[in-house]
Amino acid sequence: MPTLTLTNIQITPLNAPLGAVVTGLDASQKISPQVILELKQSLRDYHILIFKNQHLNDEQFLNFSFNFGSLFVPPDNIPVLASQPGVTPVIIPVSNVDNGYTGTGELAFHSDHKWTPYPSSGSLLYALEVPSQGGDTSWLNLNLAYESLDQSTKKRIANLQLITYNPFLNKPGEPRRKYREDKTIPLISPVFPHPLVRTHPESGKKILNLDYATEVEVVGLEVQEGKELIKQLRNHLYLYQPQFCYQHKWSVGDIVYWDNQSTLHYRQAFDPDQRRVLKRISLAGSRPF
User: Fold this and answer.
1) Out of 67, 121, 122, 279, which could bridge 285 as a Cys pair, Cβ 3.0 to 4.6 Å?
2) Is 208 exposed, middle or buried (0-12, 13-18, 19+ CB in 10 A)?
């Protein structure tokens, strides 16, 4: 089998706040160390990489993902998407058919596994079937979001810790809170405070480590102060969203590899009568600092 080298591939930055397209690469083939390093450095610089026109079986998709790290495995007592007692699938069907996950509705901007002790470093999402309209995925650059804050806000949040509560512990139909106000709610799973301003473990850039809608709590602040601060930061994300985002319209054969440490992602709703079938692999991460 031939080995893909740097002469075979091209990495082209998007005209967007993040993202680059990789062409000339067949993810089913063996890839040279130089190419793997170049791809890792490009992910660090551009936050998401888009691989076009791929044709992979599950084993090939998994082997391609292993070029970038080991698999994310959550603790047994901390459920994530597709968790079953004692096991989480290696390849998760993100699909509205055939017992897949996430349905057809809008998914607010979020990063994966933020409520775990070691959130995933990134994920690869591979498109097999896509609807004719809707179902686009957008990614938001959290380094730009942080850098565009005013200096007083940066100083205020510099050393704060944030707890993100596990959304997969919510009961069906239960109202989704955005801030933990009731301290009497019993904890049925461990919680893990992480920096509200995270340092990227490879680039060293500062990251606003907050999503749009998952329930959170700022450690050490009174409820009202913490709630108002989080609302202010989320308003900042919303207000400047077009300056931070890239929206991807999926094509069959696309693989998007994103840095889960420095981005949020969002999905448009789409017609439930149309099929949307993708597969996701998530990679292990480290303790945020």
Assistant:
1) 121
2) buried
129: containing domain? 3-140+248-283
* C-alpha to C-alpha distance for 247 and 133, rounded to whole angstroms: 13
Give the separation between CA 223 and CA 220, rounded to whole angstroms: 9
Does residue 16 contact residue 144 with C-beta atoms inside 8 Å?
no
> Are 78 and 182 members of one domain?
no
CA distances from 170 to 64, 173, 176, 267 (A): 34, 8, 8, 20
Give pLDDT tens digits for 211-236: 999 999 999 999 999 999 999 999 99
pTM for this prediction = 0.94
Taking only the tens place, the pLDDT of each residue in 239-251 is 877 899 999 999 9
The reply to whether 61 and 123 lie within a common domain is yes
